[in-house]
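Q: I'm writing up a methods section and want to include an example of the input and output format. Could you take the sequence below and give the corresponding predicted structure tokens, formatted cleanly so I can copy it straight into the document?
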Amino acid sequence: MQDNRDNLSEQSRAEQSRAEQSRAEQSRAEQSRAEHNLDKLTRSVSLLRVLSICLIVTVMVGGLGAGYCGYKLYRKVQGQADTIEQSRERINTLEIRMEELSPSLDDEAKKFLANCDDDHYNILFIGNSITRHEITSYWWSDGRGMAATSQDTDYVHQTESLLTDKLEELKPGAKGINGYAFNYSVWETNAHDRAQTYPVMDKYMTEGGGLDVVVLQLGENVSDASTDDSTYESDYAELIQHIKEEAPFAQIITVGDFWADDTKDAVKKSVAEEVGVTYVDLAEIQDDPNYEAGMGTTVQGDDGNEHEIDHSGVAKHPGDTGMKWIAKKIVDVVEK
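A: Here is the clean output for your methods example:
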């Protein structure tokens, strides 16, 4: 009987896995179609705008008849532009859905959540590529911040190492540091509705408020901070409030942008003060090549081979020195 139950359980898990894979494939196909349609619409609007300019010139010469045609063309351009915006929002929604349908938690995350108890000092890092980036054609590791030369030299692992030295005074009797980092850049880029991405983050939160510290390193990929209709400031405040609700006993530490941006830095400082969380300012090292990885830096890949940074975007990320500086600043503000 037990063997039968085990077999049924295995069949159930297999069926569930196949169903999740099917839903993910459907979402990928739908996203591909949406991106194709968006590309066609964008080209169409560009052409219509050129025609509109031509008609404006015609109106100046041809009078009311041409003016009416120009008005109709303008309305068509506006309608196409609205459709493009709707398509972009649809693509963002599909990206979030695909993220939710991806494998729930990796083994590292499961171990982190299982150990998130009073016997450990528990710290969650929420960030972008500076915190963690997956393997791509120009980056060769899945478990660390981009441009760090090894697994132990990104700011996450250096923070954990420095905290280990202070463990007894931070949490007497704790067995060790229990940390996890994940990439949440989808929040940065989903400007039309950032709160929609919370399920992606919430699966890494622990039940019962077991977290001691949450480090929030987001902002570098935000592109709407300076626009007239920007919601970045209110979105950032709402994000922190949401984290407070999910981790009510944790100290929340927000990290400034690594690349200088006065508007985004001002937003982060203001919100941190308003909602009562700790802010780590990176102004001292912003845009300083001494703290960037730089082109030609050799890094150790997950494949065991050495690779040379040849991508300018990767090279602008914090190098080991920059990562160490950030880690020290975080540890300096951790509350006992």
